[in-house]
């Protein structure tokens, strides 16, 4: 009995024996989790390992089939996120979904408004919100509407909301996926402050650097099971990766050296919204990396090249000939393909089959008279799905049924099927698990070997440095430096020096 | 023991996929059996042929409506389109002696043009389909009143043959037209790139654009087809009633929407099948026919119809395990 009490003091939240099945799929098998008061616990695992399902079970979005949970020593269960919030557990979701027309104060007090009888007491609510915002040094007044905020600020509002509802445990799902380094640092400062106030934090991220920087301990999941927990102090990166994938990964970025060929693609003096005076060229077999802070104009440039946004001026050359691109269709016809950074919005029709998604840009050349050659389509889509190692029982399944990594492979598959001369990859491994990530990297090497010119945008410095033959660095809409493979290999350039260029030094 | 085996059967993967594919057909089958038990006459070949002829009007409208809904919109003008087209036919053929073929061509052309205008406003200016077609419906019905001067125009028997005539004395022309249109729509929707583009634009417009689909053009085509279908349906309907009037076709868009939705067309866009729509069209037809055969009081029919449609959609969602979230 006494022993139990001490345990309860140590752990603010515990669960064990949690199982959850969806239809025939066992998403969680007898998993456990122990969170200490005031610690930052990293939750690691490939996509589909069961992290999100467990978190959703904790905040009441799913009801577990079996298992027990205790929070602050008392049995705990939640039927909805409001239940969880009232008990003291809040979650900051990866994709923030604010009501854009609400003010900050209204967002913070959503579903627990300050009332005056049956009427809203706006004045009191605004004052209360302002006081909390001031505590956090938030730069906007409480009456600002949400749509004026950046993603980082919206996230901060969510955190403030959690804290103001007296949350003793906050779950953060990939909180840094849309933040630049400066915003990430700010977030980490806030996390450290929360920790000092004895708030426990469950931190889900695919970024190892962050986990080592901010977390105290780590729990690893694989295929819906709990693998184990470690203290961050005595665990190494290869050890964590092998816990996650169940095998040793010798090299996360298996760079294949490919002889660089002729210039395939060249742009001169491109200007558009968010970037100006951009000139570069890519050669056959080359992987050209683009590094820079989020919002520095990398994606904007590529979107304009691909015809998604308007190009104000500048020239584009493909294999020596000047071309004009006014729409994605024209870009595809010229042999340019682009994997967008925003998979859900620009990548997939989630409720259509994998086959239809892969063939969508490639239908014009798969016609037989007026009709589609569906037999050929099926065969080719199967081939490309296998080439990209999409894990699915059938390509007739909805894209929705796949994990993030496999969805990304489907997006890449559709563009490889288009047989492009130039492949633009914007954050090709964002939100993708470690296993799928190294598979995508290996495939990039393979496509380069086949003579494709590849442009890769990535916010992960180790990825850009590991994969690229050359790196161009963006700073506030302009190019601010170039780094070659040799400079990286001989150690003349390191992460710090690239980051310095991103910050405009 | 038997009961246990039963529940596991209903929860089994195989049963679920079967029901999600053919659930509505099962509902239709039960409906047929139910009506047939109450009124055995229902299954007579005369009655079944009758039902098939009658559903052709709503059927054509449903194909167009399904496309509009699949792109994430709706076409509320189809009822008014019936009225306008019917009075144009009256003015041209009865009052001005134009040959039937030419008159029909002009009538359908006008309806198609209005469909194009709907699509153009919706796609080019990014307006809500609901608002555009709700307003255009007033414009179109108003035009019908202007064209007809508010008077009904009757047709001679040569024109009504379009509805009452039979190919080789066996197959009524409306069934023939309906069958041909269904085959063309089926091929267009499931076997051409246009069909894929429609589904993609409805499923995720941004992703479709980023995959090289001209979403503006696709949407305009859908509403133009819907207009064309309304024109064709108007010809059949006018031949059936033998008169062109500006006040016909009220509420026809409701049946077309209902048939589409029962047939599995998702209001969220991007999910629909033509065979599904066909089943939806039949279910609506059986509801009408069944209510009349069972002899439900005319004043109550509308209420019963509405409730049955809601019930059908709910039942379909329940056995499919589909839900809006």
Q: What is the distance, rounded to the nearest whole angstrom, between the alpha carbons of the first and last residues of chain B? A: 35 Å
Briefly note the CATH topology name of the largest domain in chain A: Rossmann fold
Number of helical segments with 4 or more residues of chain B = 14
Contiguous runs where pLDDT drops below 50 for at least 5 residues of chain A: 1-8
Instruction: Give the low-confidence spans of chain B.
Output: 1-6
E-strand count of chain A: 24
- Mean residue pLDDT of chain B: 89
Number of domains of chain A: 3
Secondary-structure-derived class of chain A: alpha/beta
CATH topology of chain B: ABC transporter involved in vitamin B12 uptake, BtuC
Looking across the biggest beta sheet of chain A, what order are the strands in? 6-9-10-3-11-12
What is the CA–CA distance across the termini of chain A?
61 Å
Helix content of chain A: 25-40%
What is the gyration radius of chain A calculated from CA atoms? 24 Å
* Full CATH superfamily name of the largest domain in chain A: P-loop containing nucleotide triphosphate hydrolases
Main pleated sheet of chain B:
2 strands, antiparallel
CATH architecture of the largest domain in chain A: 3-Layer(aba) Sandwich
Work out the radius of gyration of chain B.
21 Å
Number of strands of chain B: 4
Q: Please give the order of strands in the largest beta sheet of chain B.
A: 1-4
Could you write a compact summary of the structure shown?
The complex is a heterodimer of chains A (505) and B (325). Chain A is an alpha/beta fold and 505 residues long.
Protein architecture, described:
The complex is a heterodimer of chains A (505) and B (325). Chain A is of the alpha/beta class and 505 residues long. Chain A has three domains: 2-245, 3-Layer(aba) Sandwich (Rossmann fold); 262-335 and 420-505, Rossmann fold (3-Layer(aba) Sandwich); 345-419, no CATH class. In chain A, a hairpin with a 2-residue loop joins strand 23 and strand 24 (478-484). In chain A, helix 14 (374-387) packs across helix 15 (404-417). Chain A is globular, with a radius of gyration of 24 Å. Chain B has a single domain (50-316), classed as Orthogonal Bundle (ABC transporter involved in vitamin B12 uptake, BtuC). Helix content of chain B is 77%, strand content 2%. Chain B is globular and about 65 Å long. Chain B starts with a helix and ends in a 5-residue tail after the last helix. Residues 1-6 of chain B have low confidence and may be disordered. At the A-B interface, helix 11, helix 12 and strand 20 of A face helix 9 and helix 10 of B.
